[in-house]
Design goal:
Elements (H helix, E strand, L loop, with lengths): L1 H15 L12 E6 L4 E7 L8 H8 L8 E4 L13 H7 L4 E4 L11 H7 L3 E4 L3 H7 L1 H9 L3 E9 L3 E4 L10 H13 L2 E5 H7 L14 E5 L18 E4 L10 E4 L5 H10 L4 E4 L3 H9 L5 E7 L6 E3 L16 E8 L2 E7 L4
Parallel strand pairs: 3-4, 4-5, 6-12, 6-13, 8-9, 8-12, 9-10, 10-11
Antiparallel strand pairs: 1-2, 1-3, 7-14, 13-16, 15-16
The protein binds ligand AOF and zinc ion.
């Protein structure tokens, strides 16, 4: 199994090259392998939404050298006619002996490929680097299983957990390199979401100031119509979705959505508007609402070596009687960025 893990890791690394152009489709990588010669014949990945699947690209690159060979794919080969024909047909036609899969496809329309291959006499091995493959496709999994966007909360606090001084001042808690990291995180999400408190206090641009990177869609939570339309977040650098219950006349790049207090419904509506992944950068009020509504999947939390004493909390209004009932982040990763720390963890694992 060791050799398959190494090869599957290569499939996963290949899949990442799509760099989001695959959205809303999954990241998928594939390798055609010769078990006798112990060598990789070819590889491929899903490059762009609507275009060839990973298996198709890997098989094309094998130039006919597939009979009796093994194919490794980071996702169960599809069995359906979508934008492209079923990969199972091509795998069977190409004469493969074995198919190694990291994870089954959660998409009911396309799943069942493993069974089809087995019925055609191909040996199928499932679950190689499944955890890594699910991490790679966390956004796709959330989208398919819940019809909602994947939501990551970014926070930055002092050592004593404060996001601002009591007077609201918060520029700058983290160091410059940590702020560059925030730009990189923003570039990985399709949309960035913030709320009126933060926007009125900081008038942020919520854009990406990195070379060759487009800025994310901005989702502005302002149900009580507090933010004037001349604020930076409403400029036409990118599409804006404004959550606001007033009757407004808006420029073309701003779409309006109402909010009735139900976050589950709000995120489902955002998904229907094509939003697959969201990074939240807001203040205590909005962070707390989303955490209480159980809408956060992942947290990236920066810590700076400062002590503010009395100040604004990162979360408030949550309380538990038992430690076991409190929120426990999983799969923790810690990165030191000069004198700051970045702690990444999951609230939900898909
Ligand atoms: C991909 N790339 O490499 C694999 C996918 O509309 P289609 O034909 O592109 O089908 C999309 C579905 O196919 C997708 O949701 C997933 O379930 C399955 N497998 N999709 O985009 C790939 N192997
Ligand atoms: Zn396919």
């Amino acid at each position: 199994m060791m050799k398959y893990s190494k090869l599957m890791q290569k499939c996963i690394n290949l899949a990442k090259k799509a760099n989001g152009k695959n959205m809303p489709n999954p990241f998928v990588g594939a390798i055609v392998y010769d078990e006798e010669k112990k060598e990789i014949i070819s590889s491929g990945y899903h490059k762009k939404y609507g275009e060839a699947h990973a298996e198709v690209n890997a098989i094309k690159n094998a130039n006919g050298n597939t009979i009796g060979k093994t194919i490794l794919v980071s996702l169960e080969p599809c069995s359906h006619y979508g934008k492209t024909p079923p990969c199972t047909d091509l795998i069977i036609k190409s004469g493969f002996k074995k198919c190694i899969i990291a994870m089954l496809d959660p998409n009911k329309k396309a799943s069942g490929g493993a069974e089809i291959l087995k019925n055609a006499g191909i040996e199928v091995v499932e679950g190689i680097l499944e955890k890594e493959a699910r991490e790679l496709n966390k956004v796709f999994l959330k989208n398919i299983l819940f019809k909602k966007p994947y939501v990551m909360l970014k926070t930055a606090t002092t050592l004593d957990g404060k996001i601002a001084l009591l007077n609201g001042k918060s520029k700058w808690i983290t160091n410059e390199k940590a702020r560059l990291k925030v730009q990189k995180l923003r570039s990985k999400y399709q949309a960035i979401m913030s709320a009126s408190g933060t926007i009125l206090a900081d008038n942020p641009k919520l854009n990406v100031r990195l070379k060759n990177k487009t800025s994310p869609i901005r989702i502005i939570f302002d149900p009580n119509n507090k933010i004037p339309l001349n604020y930076n977040v409403f400029n036409n650098d990118a599409r804006v979705i404004l959550i606001n219950n007033s009757k407004l006349e808006l420029p073309k790049h701003i779409e309006q959505l109402n909010f009735d207090g139900n976050f589950d419904k709000l995120f489902k509506e955002l998904f229907m508007m094509g939003i697959c992944s969201i990074m939240v950068e807001a203040g205590c009020g909005f962070n707390s609402e989303l955490i209480k509504a159980d809408e956060i999947d992942e947290i990236n939390h920066f810590i700076a070596p400062k002590i503010f004493g009395d100040g604004l909390n990162f979360v408030s209004g949550l309380n538990y009687n038992e430690i076991n009932d409190s929120i426990q982040l999983k799969n923790i990763k810690v990165e030191q960025i000069e004198d700051n720390l970045l702690i990444n963890g999951k609230i939900k694992i898909y």
